[in-house]
Structures are given as C-alpha cells and as structure tokens.
Amino acid sequence: MAQITDTMQEYFALPTAIYTPNASYGDENATSALDARSTDQNFSCDAIRDFVNVTCELPINYAVPMYGYVMPFLLFVTIIANTLIVVVLSKRHMRTPTNVVLMAMALCDMFTLLFPAPWLIYMYTFGNHYKPLWPISVCYAWTVMHEVIPNMFHTASIWLTLALAVQRYIYVCHAPLARKFCTMPNVYKCLVYILVSAALHQATRLFDQEYSEVEIYWNGSYEYVCSTRTAAWVMNYVTEDVYYLSYFLFRIIFVHLVPCVALVVLNFLLFCALRQAQQRRDLLLSKKNQKSECKKLRDSNCTTLMLIVVVTVFLCVEIPLAVVTILHVLSSIVIKEFLDYYVANVLVLFTNFFIILSYPINFAIYCGMSRQFRETFKELFIRGSIGSNRNGGSSRYSLVNGPRTCTNETVL
Q1: Domain of 111: which CATH number?
Q2: pTM (whole model) above 0.85
Q3: C or N: which end of the chain has fewer Cβ atoms within 10 Å?
Q4: How far is residue 370's CA from residue 84's CA, in Å, rounded to a whole number?
C-alpha cells in the first residue's frame, strides 16, 4: 500500500490541494533549493514542501481570480442572503421543524465561507499568497480558520441537508409518524447531535500538525517561516497511514457517499410521492366540496417541490467533490498512483468555487417557490414590521398556505 499522508489540504470540507507526500522535516536540500529560487515567485513548490506557503496549495492562475476577485462579492451576497433567511425563518409564526433545519443550514453555509474569507482576501485579493507565513500563531490560525472550522460547518451542513430530506420524507410518506418524530424538541436535539458530531470529527485536526520556526533566505534577506510536520503522537502511536486513511475513509463513507446516495434515493421517493399527490389534487379539483383539502395539498406539494430543488442543487455541487476525494484515497492506497494531481487540484478548485456559488441560491429558491416566505419577507422589509401589522398571533400567516396539518407542520 502506498503511503498516505495528509496530502489534501481541506477547504469547505473538501481538498483544495493534493500533494505527493511531504519531504522529511528539516531537509537541508529543500532549504538550499529554496534559497536558490526565493527571489522568483514561481519557484518550485517541491523545494518548500515543509514550509507554509499558500502559492503551492492551489493552481494560482485560477485561484487568484476566483478567490481573490469573485469570492469577496460572493461573500457579501451570501452574508446578506443567508442573514435574510435567518431573519425571516426566525419569526414566531415561521418557526416550524422544517424551517428550523433550513435556518441551521443557512447559518452553517454562511460560517463555512465567513471564517476563511479574511484569509482569502488577504492572500488572493491583496496578492500575499506567495509570502511564507510567520509567526507560528499565524500559521496555526490559517490552518484552523481555513481548513478545520470551515470543514466542520460544511460537514454539519451536509448532515443537516440529509436530516431535512428525511424529515420531509416522513411528512409526505409517513404522516402519522411525523407527530411523534418531527417535533420541535426532537429537531433541536438533532441539531445539537449533528453539530457536536461534526466538531468531534474535526477535533484531532486541531493538533495533528506541529509547527516550528525556521530561518531561510527569501526575497533577498533572511526571514523566519513556519515549518510543519506530522505531530509526534500521530507518528508514534497511530502512524500516518492509519491516521489519514481512517480520516479520509470516514469522510468518504459518512460525509460524502452515504449522505449523497441517501439524498438521491429520498429525492426520488419524494418526487414519486409528489406525482401521486398531484394526481390526488387533480381528482379533488373535480369535487366542489373538497376545495379546502385541495388547497392544503397544493401548498404541501409546493413545499415538497421546493425542498427537492434545494437538495438537487446540493447534490450537483457535492457529488463531484465526493468523486475527487474517493479517487484521491484510491490513488493513495494502491501500489502505483494513477491520479493526475494537477488536474485533481484544478477540479477541486472549481468544485469548491461552485459550492461557494451555491450558498446564496437557497434564498432565491425560497423567494421563488414559497408564498409564505415571500409574504413574510415583504412584511418585514417592504411594508414594515409584522408585529405592527398583525393582531391575533400567527393566524393570518398560517393561513397563507392553508391551515396547519395534522402533523403540526406549517408549510414554508
């Protein structure tokens, strides 16, 4: 089995760069090679594998325009859009099991981009990506804010999307069970379990690397840089192969493969149930005394269709990342590596960018497909505060999409 090291730097829960295994720590030849190339920003990355330098993490010709110029605009749009989602869904009359999960997803997506954003702006927008990082505290902050924390929130977002699909499947296909399982207390417990599990999954990444200061000749003078190596506890008690293979296999199975396959299956089942419900609605339309039931069924169908669209967008950006991660691990464990890592880096860069691009889309989906979301948004930001325009609690707005169902779920 080929040696597996942490050859993929993770960003947004996915690899941003894929390297061959690191050179030995403190390699004098590597330092000498760096001295010879230090005045050229396009120096060989093979010479500085042990030093934290962002230029070598991504194909820089693509990373600068995407993360340096487009990303700040997407960050602004994402913060505005997801904040509006949270504000609208947090209103008392909108607080339902489905909406609580949607609100948690919006927060996780926003934090996934918000934490690394200052570093991306500094590195790519301001053109500092070629500079070695120093001191050690800065190098550690870069790793935590650029890899660990975004990875944690993105993992939570994936599991929340799966929880949302399962919840909607219960509402649509097993309505009697919804009263028991899809309650607000159970939803809050599920959110806590997901966030804690995502944090535990990333906990070891906080201390699986060791940093030290090394003085090198760079850009015409001697500078201190951060040198990294795998932590002693990994090398001595677990070994790199076991540690990184376990980490990536867990991600492949429980963060990528199982959620994506389950979401595809649930989306298909929901689509089939939606077609059956539409046929039932057409039948009810022909009966004059069933118009109220028909309206309620229409609103439920609209919510189901909206969530199918949300999950479909999610799958379109997540499946390519899952494929690249699987290929990386397979290439690492076979005797001879078959993956072209430059091509893989480019693919990962674009898939990460499309993930960022997908974050503000949910707001457009909610506005376009949810009448109650639009009405609440208009009352909040166009006509004034809901509280000043509504008496008697949420009765008016619970009727916008029909009365509450027997499962105590208000249609979004």
Answers
A1: 1.20.1070.10
A2: no
A3: N
A4: 14
